[in-house]
Amino acid sequence: MESAALLAGGWFTDSPAGTHPALAALARVVNDSVGDATRHALWPLAAELADARPPDRAYTSLLVGSVVDAAGVLRPASRRLARQGRACRRRSEKLAHASGGGLPGRAADLLWWRGPGRRYLEHALRVLCAAPDADQRLARLLRKAVAEARDRAAGDGLARGGRVPAVDDSAVVGEGREGRCNR
Predict the structure, then answer these.
(1) Over the stretch 55-74, which tens digit does the pLDDT of each residue have?
(2) For residue 8, what pLDDT is reported?
(3) DSSP-assigned letters across all residues of 38-91
(4) Distance between CA atoms of 52 and 59, rounded to whole angstroms?
(5) CA torsion sign, 164 to 122 to 54 to 95?
(6) Of 118, 14, 135, 137, the residue nearest 75 (C-alpha)
(7) CA dist 17 to 20, 42, 52, 87, 144, Å?
(8) In CA terms, which of 23, 64, 78, 158 is 20 to 30 Å from 124?
(9) How far is residue 100's CA from residue 1's CA, in Å, rounded to a whole number?
């Protein structure tokens, strides 16, 4: 994230202005949790992260919901993940049909992100970090999230139905370190 901030011409920070806060949180966890080889392979995403801030209010819940859904693939019997996924879908559907919201809407979005949204994301990422192939899952998840954020920022994501695509991790095979996550 520091590289993305510098590439955007900003200050040295891990929360650059051009990157959506939920996407920046995902990128920080992925960076801190994957091995050196995977981290090196993700380096080109820094330029894309520098300008990945979709303007729509539903993006945060869509992103968090996609991460929760990816964790749900690993733990299909988890009622907690199922409940969190439903909550994210309900919120994104509600916001997809809402007006701009102004200051009250932005305040509500910030409160959701600072409260349940962040907790849902952190729980889902702990599940994903515990997977035997965590590096591959996390890298793929971040790549898809960045691509979708860039599409939505350009307006393309809204034309495709306003959804962050689900990540199909059922066919992932590979090596990883079980239980390794810095968040």
Answers:
(1) 888 899 999 999 999 999 99
(2) 47
(3) HHHHTTTHHHHHTTB----TTHHHHHHHHHHHHHHHH-TT-HHHHHHHHHHHHH
(4) 11
(5) positive
(6) 137
(7) 8, 20, 9, 27, 20
(8) 158
(9) 28
Mean pLDDT of 11-31: 74
Name residue 37's amino acid: A
Strand boundaries in the chain, DSSP class E: none
Mean pLDDT of the chain: 78
CB distance 137 to 183 below 8 Å: no
Q: Which residue has the higher pLDDT, 163 or 84?
A: 84
Give how far Cα 15 sits from Cα of 11, 23, 85, 104, 112, Å: 10, 10, 25, 23, 18
119 forms beta bridges with none
Show the tokens assigned to 23: 């996407």
The pLDDT of residue 162: 46
- 83-89: long-range contacts, CB 8 A cutoff, minimum separation 24: 84/120, 84/123, 84/124, 87/116, 87/120, 88/61, 88/62, 88/64, 88/117, 88/120, 89/61, 89/65
Could you tell me the end-to-end alpha-carbon distance of the chain, in angstroms, rounded to an integer?
16
